[in-house]
Amino acid sequence: QVRLVESGGGLVQPGGSLSLSCAASGSIASIWAVGWYRQAPGKQRELVASIRGGSTNYADSVKGRFTISRDNAKNTVYLQMNSLKPEDTAVYHCNADLYSSSGSLLNSWGRGTQVTVSS
Fold first, then answer.
1. Burial class (CB in 10 A: 0-12, 13-18, 19+), 67
2. Which DSSP string corresponds to 103-115?
3. Angle value at C-alpha 87, between 110 and 112, nearest 5 degrees
4. DSSP state of 83
5. DSSP string of 10-73?
6. Distances from the Cα of 80 to the Cαs of 26, 48, 74, 102, in angstroms?
């Protein structure tokens, strides 16, 4: 069984920074790709950043402010968020395609972490 747990959310003032983590645990061989999504109340879920191998992609709304990275040894993916804006307020979830120890390709979602940007 595979589990993804996000952490690092919280309340921050506009212009501030937060670093989110997405840690995978369980019978994992490797993480293939991870996407960070966010969903604000009343809005559709949005893919903000993704990493596949060494390749990264970002939504236009976060380019230049957010950075996604990974630590393969720790089975953890990070989202560094700088210059935060009130419109970045949302629940942030990670979604991962990963290989189990048995060689199966699995997809898993975390439960999310709340990010609130407010003065």
1. middle
2. S-EEEEE---EEE
3. 10
4. S
5. EEE-TT--EEEEEEEEESEEEEEEEEEEEE-TTS--EEEEEEETTEEEE-TTTTTTEEEEEEGG
6. 25, 12, 17, 32
CA distance 112 to 59: 19
pLDDT tens for each residue of 38-87 = 999 999 999 999 999 889 999 999 999 999 999 999 999 999 999 999 99
Q: Is the pLDDT of residue 107 over 90?
A: yes
